[in-house]
Amino acid sequence: MKGILLLGILLTVAPVSKASLYDAIDTSRAYECFRLASGKMLGNWIRVEADSLAAAEATARAHFQTSGGPVDAVRCYLVY
To answer: Could you say which residues form the signal peptide (predicted)?
Structure first.
């Protein structure tokens, strides 16, 4: 009887623990980005945290646009 009760508890708690484990894993990565204006690198590199390269470039573009100055393109590279 104790074994069946313990098994029932484990089966009930295991999926919750597994879901919590996946939620706790941070999938974001660090990217270093710069902006291009008239084909030249302009300003300093910035570091952003994002889940993908596209998200990093979007975040960096928003940062550069709010800080002022021209932004024709944004390039980001994954930091290892």
So the answer is: 1-19
For tokens 């024709």, name the residue.
72
Indicate the pLDDT class of residue 10, thresholds 50, 70 and 90. very low
Total domains, the chain: 1
Range(s) of the domain holding residue 15 = 2-78
Q: Is residue 75 within 8 Å of 53, Cβ to Cβ?
A: no
Question: Residue 20 pLDDT > 90, yes or no?
Answer: no
Radius of gyration (C-alpha) of the chain in whole angstroms = 22
Q: How far apart are CA 12 and CA 22, in angstroms?
A: 17
Paired sense of beta strands 29-37 and 73-78, if any: antiparallel
Q: How does the average pLDDT of the chain come out, rounded?
A: 81
* Contact of 70 with 42, CB cutoff 8 Å: yes
Distance CA 65, CA 69 (A): 7
